[in-house]
Amino acid sequence: MEHLGQFIINHWQLWLALIVVLLLTFINELITQKKKAKELTPQAAVDLINHENAVVIDLRDKEAFKQGHIIDAINARGEDFEQQKMDKYKNTPIILIASRAIEAQSLANKIRAQGYQPHVLSGGIAAWTNAELPLVKGK
């Protein structure tokens, strides 16, 4: 430890480079987090649905959707957001549900650039089920 000060003085360029790299990494992480859609707990999703009339978009396949989905959820695919039929949801908060949150997060990043207000249910449909919230079966 006693030689650390001397090492820093002798190799100040290396220390400066280390600080710059750490600073750039930190800035990149902040930018990435800012671009990421907000992840919601099931309770926060219920609150958004009840108070801001959020639309629930379930991205799972039709069979998984039929086995159980959130009340009034719309079964859609990522490609559907490229068509005009989804434009009516641009002015309302959207909660994206998938089997895994990472799938919904990548779509959320894509559709945010199109003017949507996406949120992602953290933990996907499993988190909703684990919170003992109701599911509709069929349809």
UniProtKB/TrEMBL annotation:
Record field: transmembrane: 12-31
PROSITE patterns from the UniProt entry: RHODANESE_3 (PS50206)
Keyword Acyltransferase carried by entry: no
Record domain Rhodanese: where: 50-137
UniProt entry keywords in alphabetical sequence: Membrane, Transmembrane, Transmembrane helix
Gene3D superfamilies (alphabetical): Rhodanese-like domain
The keyword Membrane is annotated on this UniProt entry: yes
Pfam short name (any one): Rhodanese
Record-linked PANTHER family: FAD-DEPENDENT OXIDOREDUCTASE, RHODANESE-RELATED SULFURTRANSFERASES
Full protein name: Molybdopterin biosynthesis protein MoeB
Organism: Fluoribacter gormanii
